[in-house]
């Protein structure tokens, strides 16, 4: 009896390679999908509600409309960094980054990592400008209104909402496709249940609840991440991996296959990889000289400027952070996030190629490379781990998008145009309605996208064409006094239109037709993305030089109104001193620009001579260089995991200890003494209206007393 190898099927007495990895068969039972989606949704809703309740009881937190949307504006560096990592870890971060490793080799995940890290590093400069010039702000559109007026604000409300819709579409696309492939769970059900799972805790606790849940999500993601990369490079022996050298040898053998052989022709016809990588140096997966990788890198850089600078969730994190934490938090968050695509995607994508798994281009486009290799290496345990990891990424970003949209609606639509005299209670109620409404909308969006047949990869590459034109005007609002209102509107709208025209015309010119397939090719995407962001900046700059506004930034904050709270009083001088804020700006400019230069210029350039003087040849990694590359990834991943899990706990230990001590003591004795004191007062001074609030009736009195905070 003929025995076929793994991923081969006996057909007419001959072993034939499977035409796809999943082949419509789920690895896990359907109930596992519902269990993960519904179970984790309920768990995080319950856990976050308990934590927020304890904070309110023992920490004295009052969830006003300001607190709901700004988290008190005093979030520390570690939690700020954790939140940035959580918000920036989309489904695409885990899925699309491995897809480009599968397509282009090492250059793909490197350009994904560097091309999407620099935006977070550079956004730190805008974050400190918010603290300097607009500490009262709740949203970026409020700042735009205060500087350029309501007409400009309306235009950028559109771009901000569009950004939230695009980011959310990638969440539901990647999430639903992966859960469906691994568990067989209905795609429509997954698309609805995933965003709905985060509504409860986001609606109840607002931004602070989102931050707390994001920390837990990030910790779980990094715990699974470090497990996978060590399995690929150190632990696996059963499947032929287990060391960088073995991965290197397998990749070299895959690239050496003859693409004209019958085997390769059959695989390529099925949409699978086989043989050398087209337009890579010597066809190798181990080179930075990759035309496809570089084009993807440029598209990635342009598109991700839009999804950071135009996404209200990042502005909300900047507003929520302490002034001294805003710059450090964004820098640390960017450097920690870098390891996800750089370490995880390189390991998962290259391992998929090295082990010659029958993953098709269609499966890769849907983001199914990590699920395939996880299932291959760890069976059902790996499938469950990648599903949980993906769910963490989706709900963390999903909750951030929900609270971002609710804030935009509450402050920039409801208070601005519907009820200008809205109270804090009104804002809080509308914010919660907004969370529910956008959560349901995300479910409906999944239906629309499924009907259109768009893939995660397509949406990821096209996003810069639609929102990139808003990047430069938004960057100017807090950094350039000459930037005027008319230039902002004309630049943003014209840039988007020119980007769309370029995209379509390039597809028609190069491929003689305009279809989803031709629009998704590299060159039309590249042209549309570059034209969108560059034309917008040029138009806005030209019009501003012709008619400069010469805006006085010192007047900006007076035009933004707080509703039912005040700005926090910081103990440290660095959090309120204007000179210290200027120093913080200089610090983030130095380090943000330095790391940007290293990541997109210096590092790639230093990789070009790799392999010179060896049998690999110039531009192709030799075994020693690849070992160094993997060593950096492992070290970066290990340090990043430790920092992002332990730093937030270390920084917040005072607050945590107050809650813990409050939970294991009680206030009864002090409250009964107050009752006794009231009765004595009543006896000594009948009819007295002494009604001062008793200290022991204040939230968290006993815990703060024991902790020495009274």
Automatic annotation (TrEMBL):
The chain crosses the membrane at residues 32-54, 75-95, 110-128, 155-177, 189-207, 214-235, 292-310, 330-355, 383-409, 430-449, 455-480, 487-511, 523-543, 584-606, 626-647. One of its GO terms (cellular component) is plasma membrane. The keyword Thylakoid does not apply. Gene3D superfamilies: Sodium/glucose cotransporter. It is found in: Membrane. It is a multi-pass membrane protein. The keyword Protease does not apply. One of its GO terms (molecular function) is urea transmembrane transporter activity. Pfam families: SSF. InterPro entries: DUR (IPR031155), Na/Glc_symporter_sf (IPR038377), Na/solute_symporter (IPR001734). Its main location: membrane. Keywords: Membrane, Transmembrane, Transmembrane helix, Transport. Belongs to the sodium:solute symporter (SSF) (TC 2.A.21) family. This is Dur3, urea high-affinity symporter.
């Amino acid at each position: 009896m003929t025995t076929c190898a793994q991923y081969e099927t006996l057909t007419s007495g001959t072993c034939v390679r499977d035409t796809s990895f999943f082949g419509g068969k789920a690895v896990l039972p359907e109930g596992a999908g519902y269990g993960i989606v519904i179970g984790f949704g309920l768990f995080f809703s319950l856990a976050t509600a308990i934590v927020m309740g304890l904070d309110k009881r023992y920490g004295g937190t009052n969830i006003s409309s300001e607190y709901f949307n700004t988290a008190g504006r005093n979030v520390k560096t570690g939690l700020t960094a954790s939140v940035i990592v959580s918000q920036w870890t989309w489904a695409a971060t885990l899925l699309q980054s491995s897809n480009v490793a599968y397509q282009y080799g090492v250059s793909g995940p490197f350009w994904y990592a560097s091309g999407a890290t620099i935006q977070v590093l550079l956004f730190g400069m805008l974050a400190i400008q918010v603290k300097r010039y607009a500490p009262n702000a709740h949203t970026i559109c409020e700042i735009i209104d205060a500087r350029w007026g309501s007409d400009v604000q309306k235009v950028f409300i559109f771009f901000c909402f569009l950004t939230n819709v695009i980011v959310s579409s990638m969440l539901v696309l990647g999430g639903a496709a992966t859960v469906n492939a691994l568990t067989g769970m209905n795609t429509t059900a997954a698309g609805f249940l995933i965003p709905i799972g985060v509504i409860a805790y986001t609606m109840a606790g607002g931004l602070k609840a989102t931050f707390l849940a994001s920390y837990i999500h990030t910790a779980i993601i990094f715990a699974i991440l470090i497990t996978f990369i060590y399995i690929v490079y150190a632990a696996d022996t059963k499947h032929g991996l287990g060391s960088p050298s073995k991965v290197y040898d397998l990749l070299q053998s895959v690239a050496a296959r003859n693409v004209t052989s019958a085997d390769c022709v059959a695989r390529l016809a099925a949409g699978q990889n086989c043989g050398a990588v087209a337009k890579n140096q010597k066809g190798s997966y181990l080179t930075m000289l990759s035309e496809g990788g570089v084009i993807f890198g440029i598209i990635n850089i342009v598109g991700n400027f839009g999804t950071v600078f135009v996404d209200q969730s990042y502005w909300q994190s900047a507003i929520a952070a302490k002034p001294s934490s805003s710059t450090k938090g964004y820098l640390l968050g960017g450097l920690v996030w870098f390891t996800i695509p750089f370490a995880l995607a390189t390991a998962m994508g290259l391992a998929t190629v090295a082990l010659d798994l029958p993953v098709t281009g269609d499966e890769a486009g849907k983001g199914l490379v990590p699920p395939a290799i996880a299932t291959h290496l760890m069976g059902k345990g790996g499938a469950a781990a990648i599903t949980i990891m993906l769910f963490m990424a989706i709900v963390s970003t999903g909750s951030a998008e929900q609270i971002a949209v609710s804030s935009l609606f509450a402050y920039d639509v409801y208070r601005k145009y519907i009820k200008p005299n809205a109270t804090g209670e009104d804002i809080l109620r509308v914010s919660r309605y907004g969370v529910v409404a956008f959560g349901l909308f995300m479910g409906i969006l999944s239906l629309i996208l499924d009907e259109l047949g768009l893939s995660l990869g397509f949406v990821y590459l096209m996003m810069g064409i639609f929102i990139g034109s808003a990047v430069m005007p938004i960057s100017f609002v807090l950094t350039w006094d000459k930037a005027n209102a008319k230039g902002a509107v004309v630049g943003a709208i014209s840039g988007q239109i020119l980007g769309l025209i370029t995209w379509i015309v390039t597809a028609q010119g190069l491929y003689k037709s305009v279809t989803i397939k031709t629009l998704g090719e590299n060159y039309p995407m590249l042209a549309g993305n570059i034209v969108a962001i560059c034309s917008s900046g040029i138009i806005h700059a030209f019009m501003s030089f012709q008619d400069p506004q010469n805006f006085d930034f010192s007047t900006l904050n007076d035009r933004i109104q707080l509703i039912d709270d005040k700005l926090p009083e910081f103990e440290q001088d660095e959090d309120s001193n204007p000179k210290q804020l200027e120093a913080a700006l200089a610090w983030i400019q130095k380090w943000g620009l330095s790391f940007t230069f290293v990541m997109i210029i210096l590092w790639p350039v230093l990789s070009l001579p790799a392999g010179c003087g060896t049998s690999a040849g110039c531009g192709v990694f030799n075994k020693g260089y690849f070992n160094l590359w993997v060593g950096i990834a492992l070290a970066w991943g290990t340090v990043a995991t430790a920092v992002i899990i332990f730093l937030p706990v270390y920084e917040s230990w005072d607050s945590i200890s107050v809650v813990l001590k409050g939970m294991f003591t009680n206030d009864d004795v002090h409250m009964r003494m107050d009752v006794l004191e009231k009765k004595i007062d009543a006896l000594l001074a009948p009819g007295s209206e002494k009604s001062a609030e008793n200290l022991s009736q204040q939230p968290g009195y006993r815990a703060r007393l024991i902790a020495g905070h009274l």
